[in-house]
Amino acid sequence: xxxxxxxxxxxxxxxxxxxxxxxxxxxxxxxxxxxxxxxxxxxxxxxxxxxxxxxxxxxxxxxxxxxxxxxxxxxxxxxxxxxxxxxxxxxxxxxxxxxxxxxxxxxxxxxxxxxxxxxxxxxxxxxxxxxxxxxxxxxxxxxxxxxxxxxxxxxxxxxxxxxxxxxxxxxxxxxxxxxxxxxxxxxxxxxxxxxxxxxxxxxxxxxxxxxxxxxxxxxxxxxxxxxxxxxxxxxxxxxxxxxxxxxxxxxxxxxxxxxxxxxxxxxxxxxxxxxxxxxxxxxxxxxxxxxxxxxxxxxxxxxxxxxxxxxxxxxxxxxxxxxxxxxxxxxxxxxx
Length: 336
Hints:
The chain is α/β, with parallel strands linked by helices. Helix content is 40%, strand content 14%. It has 15 helices and twelve strands. The chain has a six-stranded parallel sheet, sandwiched between helices. A four-stranded parallel sheet has the order 3-4-5-6. It has a two-stranded parallel sheet with strand order 1-2. Strand 1 (2-3), helix 1 (16-30) and strand 2 form a beta-alpha-beta unit. Helix 8 (182-189) crosses helix 13. The chain is elongated, with a radius of gyration of 21 Å.
């Protein structure tokens, strides 16, 4: 398994790709699948040059002893590591799979030089099977390999009750930046009555400060580590995510796992994640639509939307999706 492990010097510094790869390793252990890891997190090496040299050496050393080689990475990994890993796998007659994290690969791929495009296309074609985080990526890249599958952002199932009451408590979790629609959220807060609570969690970017939020009807609560997210979500009623760009946000999956409906931007990836039964989608940048969506929830419709949110999580259950992954690469017979 080739992918990014936790930062050894700062374990709390984790992004979505690290969370997903570490989850896969835990699933291997729970399913008693023997594995070796080649760490692609450059922060765990002296520098990038040393990182790539050691990764290359590890691929050469470990591939002959493996049944299957699987790379889980970002766009850079697809260009810089995947072709070499595939070539070594073919040399030793090992099956090989690719998994692409995040949902923005079409735009990147189309802007690559012809040489880069050719390298990535060759790797996809020659791979035993490929996995992408969104369905629209599967549709786009399936032309290179018919064995192309959906492996979405996943999270562990939570044991919580969906019997929730509605108290007009809203939460935002994520990077506090313009791209995440923070100013849209703040403008919407001034259009609402005093009965609404809106709390914002996450690291500050784009010159936002604690003082900035004091002019709006929101409260900035600081950052959370990954272990605190689910417990914090359970203290609220609805997740807000008025972003301008997203793939499959992990925080939406975490919200669904505890029965929180979602109000988010009407973006391609998010459209694949939620339905009108559980959530409301609004045009990016529209504070008025965001405000109307928040007002559309009440004590009469909240229970059904919360239940629908919990049901929607089944598509992103780590146990189910990881079992499908192992079945498709030939390491497990039964698929859920």
